Please model this.
Amino acid sequence: MSPADAAPSPVPMVTVDAMGVDVHLRATSTLSGTLLSRVRDAWSDCHVPRGDAGRQHRTLDLSPDAFVDIERGLSDLSTRVTLEALDALRGTRLLLHAAGAATDDGRTIALVGPSGRGKTTASRHVGTHFAYVSDETVAVADDLTVEPYRKPLSVITPGRAHKEQIAPSIFGLKDLPDARLRLTAITLIDRQPDAAAIGPYAIDTIDAICEMTPQISYLPELPTPLQYLARLFDAIGAPTRLIYRDAVELPALVRTMLDEPGHPAAAWTVPLRADDPGPWRVAPYDDAIIVAGRACVMRNGMVTALDQRGCLVWTQCLAGASTEAIVATAVAEFGEPEQGEATALIAATIEELRVLGFIEAA
Model:
């Protein structure tokens, strides 16, 4: 093949800052001026900071075939950039599927929720009062530093098949402050149009973790992931559920949450395994914490909550206790059951844990 026949080298288009990762967008062949302008305009608020050495780099090559339908191509590009950055940061950051907003001095709140929960709408309302950090992912380092991801907002528009990608500045969302962003609050957003009352409400730590884990990318790749979340709550305060009727209420609610200290997180412990197993062998697990007599256990990347009786039986099995000893401990902890026999209840719990794969006969 002669040099003239060789495929042309990709042409740099723009580099965007995605959670502290430089994602270089390149054109593999000639793209129309209209398309180039649409891409640059959509990502115009996602600048890469200058003079920041040691950043990770990823490259995405864009071909005209991906933009036969321009609106679909721009929507897909937003997803591709996000996935590249998440992959680059896996195992090194807490990657929350959340909208983010920050005060002038860098205090940052993560509004966690699944797709369709209203994070982009929340960003449009909150971002006119606080700095827009992201409508998609809040990346948190061990020291609570937050790396912004000022991607275009993905906006549902009536009559359009795909979400429009619109730069946050078009909506008048605030720029980032000069201060370092640091996470100070996490809340699970919950729009309830008919709610009798609005505001942040306390949520049990284990319930919060179980609800949050589907909204955390690559959580199992963090060291002791459940303990990681528990330590995070120790540092910033207990997670909450933010109930609101309409997004117009969110700026005032967020202001209160950022200005007032949150409640301390619940105390937690780590279960201990005996050197010598008893009659019940506990299956391997990735991590576990105990809070107020309940357990949260991660196995093969999946998180399960055990109620108080399940937690007691499981931890007693870890300690090498016999079935008789487990029954005695349960009676001492909970008293005799109002209905049924303690022995039968514990036997049923043991069987349930066995069926679920938490324990097996030694």
Notes: The chain has a mean pLDDT of 93. The chain has nine helices and 19 strands. Residues 70-89 form the longest helix (20 residues).
